[in-house]
Every structure is written in C-alpha cells, then in structure tokens.
Amino acid sequence: MAGRVVYFSGDFVPEREANVSIFDCALMYGDMAFEMTRTFGGEPFRLREHLDRLYGSLRLLEIDCGLTIDEMAEQTLVTLEKNQATEAEGMDWWIMHDVSRGPLPVYGSLWPEGTRPTVTISTWPLITHMGPFASKYETGVDIVVPAQQALPAQLVDAKAKTRSRMHYKMAELQGQRIGEGAWPVMFDPDGFMAEGPGWNIFLVKDGTIFTPEPRNILQGVSRGTVLELAAQEGIPLVEANLGRYEALQAEEIFCTSTSYCIVHGRSFEGQQVRDGQRGPVVERLTEAWRQLVGVDMIGQAREYAEALPGWLEQEVEANRTALAAT
Asked: What CA–CA distance (Å, rounded) separates 76 from 73?
C-alpha cells in the first residue's frame, strides 16, 4: 500500500514529494532519457540490459547523470527493497528510471547552490498495469495503421528511449478514433512497418517469424528476448522490411513489451488473423517465456485483475489517511 519512496537525485523521498521543477528540461523539451522494466518473482528482469540502453540514450543526449551504471543498478535494487515491504509478499513491480539534464540554465538563479541533472528511480506495484490487461491474453488485440508515421533515424534515432514521444501519443489518439481499444502500429516514411507506441511487432508465416528491421524502431529488451527464445526453440526468425501485404498474409501476429511480455493480434486493419486466437508459435514462445522467468504471467495477471478493486480501495484510503495526518 501507500508509503513508497522514490530515489530522487541522491535522496529517498515519499512519492508525493518527488516533484520535478516546471523549469526542468524534461518539461521544457521532453529532454529526458528513461527506462522501464519489471520484476518477476521480485527480481528485476534483465536490469543490466535496460540500464545499458539507458546509458546509451544518455550518451546520445549528452547527459552525465552523475552515477556510474553500477551505481545506478545498486540504487535501483535499494529502491526496490525499500518499497517491497509496503506490499504483500508476491507482488511484482514496475521499475522506472527517468533522467534529465535538470533545470534550464536561463532559470538557474532559482538554484543558487547550482543545478544538476534530475535522476529518479521509482517502483510501482504491477497490479495496476497487469490487472486491466489480463483479458487481452485471451481476446488478443486489434492492430491498426494510424496516419502518424514513425520518426526516421535521420531526425531522431528511435534506438534512444526518450520522453520526446509526441508521435507515440498521436498514434494512440488516431488508433482510438479508428476503433476503441485499437493498437496502432506506425509505418516509417518508406512505407514499412516500424513499431507501436511502446511495443514491437512480429508476424508469423510458414513457421518463420518476421519482424521489422531495427533501423527506425526502439530495439526493445522484450524484442531481444523473442530473438533469443526463437533461437532456443529452433524457430527461424528474419528481420525484414514488412508492409501491409505481409501483415495480411500472416498466420499469426504478436506484440511484445516489458510489462505483458507477449500478446497476440486477433486482427490487422479490421481483418481477422487466422481464427483470432493465440497461434502455435505464440503459445510456444509464451511457454518458453514462462520457463525463462519462472512466473506464469498470464495467471498472475488474472490474479491481479481479481484483486485490483480491493487493492485500489485500500491504496486510496491509505493515501487519504496520510494526507489528513499532514
């Protein structure tokens, strides 16, 4: 329940007190690198890979956060440990890293002690992310193509994970206008499939997995996990230029992201994919993922869905009590 703390530029503060200045470059420009990962069984999943990407993004943005990657990893584990005690045993967590270069220098007089980068590490019970998602493992998702395109690498390199993501939001808004709950996959300016807002896409045809080339996409850690699991399972995988034609010929389509791992697409542009159910390749990869992390993420999401109303009620009441005491 409530009582969680955030690592905030060297200190640990209550969540409600982890406030970023309105003059921070993150707000002024979206000038912030970030990462999100989750735990399985209380242990962060591939934390080092996420931090390697974070520090790659920081190098591109020319931000020195003041912590080595080993120090960032250490503070991540400390933050997680401090917060795990606020929940019942067995709760998994969403871990967020956000790093900006700090307040814009023109407003620097507000900080006579000097400005510095803004670095936050926060954790959040995964129940609020995965409870509402649980039904999608069964139903699948409807994938559409919005008008919004992916940004080409010559403008902003998509391999860096930054908060400058208005094109993601526009794709989501356009997807919602196409159909309630629709998942928009953006195409690049050359007319090839790129990525969704925060997720990667895969097609299956004749037993082979196909996924977009990595030039104009965020190379997701979960995407990399699929590449590894496919090799482990002996499933051929090809990175290629893919379009609507290939998607409509696919026998299976699936999406990957850190929180839910893998979910199947039941339709593409309004046309049903096969029978609309999870296909054999998705089933095989899902089971391989379960074995890798030691958690049945589908079963866990169902448990979270059942527990979420009660959890939210207790969370709100705990925060209301804490506010009344201040």
From this structure: 5
